[in-house]
C-alpha cells in the first residue's frame, strides 16, 4: 500500500518586527507580555500595518521555489475563537495567496532525484502562546503570553508528493536549509518551524496530524501514523477522515474531538488592509548562493569530497564556519569540521554558533604543523567545547596544549620510552625477532600507554623497529 | 426558511449564548430578514472596481511596545505576567 | 497642548453622555478651549470607552484614537463620551446598555442613531461640537432627527485608528455641530493623514466654506422621493432643493437602480464584518472577566451572552450565517457584487451631476419604543446606506420641520469632494433656509 504524504509547514520569518505592528520579534529571553502593543494584543480600535520586509522575505522564498507570484494577492480573516488568538480571527491569506505552483527537488529513498510540488505559499500571523495549568487529563485554566502573537509566518503547502517519513524528513531538512540560506528563517529559535501533515494509505481516507514542532517529530509522527493506519486496514476497519494531534512526549497521535473540528472559518477579505501587487519585484530580488551551488563550489574551490561538501553545506552556519577556517588547510579543515567537530557538538547538544572560528583555526594549525597528535587534538577540542558550553572564555589551543602538557613527544623522548619498554618485555622482543609480527603491536601499545597517547603511533613503530634492529635485542 | 434548530446551530457556530425565548424570538425575525435579503439573488455583474491603493505597508522598524502593566491592567486576571484564561483542554 | 482645564458639569437630562469629564484639559490651537464630545466608540487614553456595551465595562484604553490626538493637539477640551447604540448597531440609540438618549427637540422621541448622544449633546447646547461615526447613517440620521448638521466624510479621509470597529469597510468618523461652518472647522482638524490606518489616504481637508453654488448640477434620485418615504418629508426636501435651484444650481432627476438591493447588501456586509470584529471581546484581555473555572467555549459564549445586547447578538448571528459555508455565495459574495454595482451607479450619476440631493431619513424621529421589529428598523436606513457602500461624502443639514420635528436635507458628492458637499450645505443654511 502506497503511503501518501503532504505537508503544511509554518516557518517564522526572521524580520525585526512583527507582521502587522512594530513590536520586536526578539522575545524569547524576555518576560511574558512585554513585546505587545494594541495591534498584536487585539485591543479594540487598533489596526494592522503590513511589514514590507515580511513580504519581501515571502517573495525570496517564492523565487527560490520557482513559484508563480500572483499579480494581486490579499490578506483575509480566518475566523475562529481561541484565547491565544487576540482578535478572534487570524489575518492570513486565503484564495489570493502570495504565490502558487513551485517545486523543490529532493532525493527519494532510492537516492534518485525527485521533484516535490509546492502548492502555494502564504503569509500569516502567529497566535500567542498558551500554557495549560493544573495536572491530570484536564487543565484547570490557561495562561497566555502574547509575545508571539503577530510574529510573521510563511506557510508552505506541498502537494501530496511524499512517499515515506524519511522522504518527508529529507524534504524538511532541505527546505529548512534553503530558508536559512535565503536569510529569512532562523531554525535555531525554539518553535520557529511547525508542521501539519496529511497522511493516507492509497485508496483510503486521510488524517491530518497537527502540532508537530520538531524535525525529528515529523518522522516519528508519520511513522506512528502509518503503522496505525496499516493496522486498521489489516483488521478491516475504516480509517476516519479526521484531525489528530501529535503528542511529542509519547510519540503518538491522538484523535482530537474538540469543537474546532467543525471547520467553518468564514474567510473574507481583511477590510483593514489593501491588496499587494508585488510580482514585478521578483526580478530585482537577487537570491544568495543556495545549498547546491555552494556544495559544488566547495568541491571545486577547496577540493573536498562530495560527502564532506554535502555535510558542510547542509547547514548555513556550518558552511560559513567552514569557510572561516578552510584557509588553514581545506582538506584537513573539512575532515575536522565534518567528521570530528560535528560529532562532538551533537554529543553536547551544542550549535556551531558557540564555537569561536579563530580558536578552531588555531587548533587546525597545530594539527597541520604536526605540533600535536590527532588524539591530543581531540582532547584540546573537548576542553575548548566544555569551556564554550559553560559560557567561559575559551583558551587558545596553544594555551591548552601547554597547560595540559599535550604537546607531541619528540623522537629523543620516544627513544627513551622505547628503550624502557623493550627492556621491560624481553619475551615480546624475542617473539618479534623469531617472526611473530603481532608482538610489535603489543610493544607499540605499551609505549603509547607510557606516553599517554601523545606520541604518534607511526613514529613509535619506526623508532622501535630501528631500536630492535640496531641493537639486535640489546 | 430557517427553523429554530437552524437558529440554535448558528448560535453555536457564532459561539454566542442564546436562551429558549430568544430562539423563539429570533427565528421569525431571521426569516423576515433573510426573505428580504433574497433580493440579492437578482444581482448580476458586479466586477470589483480597481483598488483605491495598493502596497500600503510600513518598514521593518521596531516601535515601542506597551509595558507589561499596561497589558495586564485591563485583563480580568493575570498570573506571573501571563493573562489568565479559561482552560482549552 | 493642554495648559489649562475647563469645568464640565452639564444638566444631561437627555442621557446624552455615558462618561463626563468634569475637569477637561485643553490648550491652544484651532479649537482652543472648545468643549467637544466624543462618541463612546472612539478610544480615549485614560477615559473609559464602552461602545454603549456591557462587554467593555471597566475598559480604559491605553492609547488615543488618531482623531483624539488631533483634537488634543488643536486645543479642544474633550468633555465626555457620548451615548450610542451598542457598537453602533441601531438607528435610535435605544440599544445602548446605558439606556436610550432622548431627543432634545421632543423628549418622547428618539434622537436617531447610532450617534444619538453626540447629536443630542450638540442639539441641547451641552457642547458646540461632537464627533460621531457613520457606518450606515449613524451621523446623518441623528443629525436629521435632532436638527443639527452632520458630515460623513469620504471613506479613507479620516483615520479609523482607535475607532472600535463595527464594519470597517463602511464606517468613518465625522463631525457634528449646529452649523455647517462648525462642522467644517472640526472636519479640518480631524482629516490629517495617519499611516496607522492602511486604508486612509492623504487628502487633508483645508477648506473655508463658500456659498456660491451657481451652476452646480444637482441630481434628485427618484428612489429618494418614492415609496417608503413620508410624503411630507419628501415635500420638505423638494422645497429645500428648490431653494438651491433659486441660488443658481441646476437640478435634474436621476435614478439609482441598485438602490433596490442596497439595503440588503449593506446589512449583509456590516453584519458579516461585525461578526468577525466582535469576536475579540472574550473577557480575557479586557472587559468583564471570563469565568476561568469553565472550559473555554462555555466561558466565551457565556460572556458574549451576558455582555452583548439582543440586537448585537442578532447581527453577529446574521453575519456568521452570511459568511458560513454554503451561504457565503448567496449572501456575502452577492452583497459585494451589489456594492460594486452601487459604486458604478454613483460614478455614472456623478459624470453628469456634481451632487445628489434627497432626504436624510424617510421620516421624522420615531417615538421612543415605537420600532420593535428589527427589519422595519433596518428599512429606515435605506436613504443613508448608499453613501457608505459607495464611500462618498454625505452631509445632513436641517431643512425644515414636519409636525414640529426636524427634517434633514442630505447632500452627497464625489469621493474626496467633501468640500463641495459642505459648500452646498453652507449655501442652503445661509441663504436657502427661512
UniProtKB/TrEMBL annotation, chain A:
Keywords on record: ATP-binding, Ligase, Nucleotide-binding, Protein biosynthesis, Transferase
SUPFAM superfamilies xrefs: GatB/YqeY motif, Glutamine synthetase/guanido kinase
Pfam hit, one: GatB_Yqey
Boundaries of every Asn/Gln amidotransferase domain copy: 320-468
A molecular function GO annotation: asparaginyl-tRNA synthase (glutamine-hydrolyzing) activity
Gene3D superfamilies in UniProt: 1.10.10.410, GatB domain, N-terminal subdomain
EC number(s) recorded for this UniProt protein: 6.3.5.6, 6.3.5.7
GO biological process: one example: translation
Binding partners and assembly: Heterotrimer of A, B and C subunits.
Family: Belongs to the GatB/GatE family. GatB subfamily.
PANTHER family per the UniProt record, alphabetical: GLUTAMYL-TRNA GLN AMIDOTRANSFERASE SUBUNIT B MITOCHONDRIAL AND PROKARYOTIC PET112-RELATED, GLUTAMYL-TRNA(GLN) AMIDOTRANSFERASE SUBUNIT B, MITOCHONDRIAL
Protein's job: Allows the formation of correctly charged Asn-tRNA(Asn) or Gln-tRNA(Gln) through the transamidation of misacylated Asp-tRNA(Asn) or Glu-tRNA(Gln) in organisms which lack either or both of asparaginyl-tRNA or glutaminyl-tRNA synthetases. The reaction takes place in the presence of glutamine and ATP through an activated phospho-Asp-tRNA(Asn) or phospho-Glu-tRNA(Gln).
Protein name as annotated: Aspartyl-trna(Asn) amidotransferase subunit b
UniProtKB/TrEMBL annotation, chain B:
Keyword flag Ligase: yes
BP terms from Gene Ontology: glutaminyl-tRNAGln biosynthesis via transamidation; regulation of translational fidelity
UniProt name for this protein: Aspartyl-trna(Asn) amidotransferase subunit c
EC number: 6.3.5.6, 6.3.5.7
Annotated keywords: Ligase, Transferase
EC main group: ligase
InterPro entries from the UniProt entry: Asp/Glu-ADT_sf_sub_c, GatC
Signal peptide bounds: none
MF (Gene Ontology): asparaginyl-tRNA synthase (glutamine-hydrolyzing) activity; glutaminyl-tRNA synthase (glutamine-hydrolyzing) activity; transferase activity
Family annotation (Pfam families): GatC
UniProtKB/TrEMBL annotation, chain C:
Catalytic EC class: ligase
Pfam family, one: Amidase
GO biological process terms held by the UniProt record: translation
TM regions (residue ranges): none
PROSITE patterns reported for this sequence: AMIDASES
Chain spans, region Disordered: 90-116
Name of the protein this chain belongs to: glutaminyl-tRNA synthase (glutamine-hydrolyzing)
Gene source species: hydrocarbon metagenome
Lineage: unclassified sequences, metagenomes, ecological metagenomes
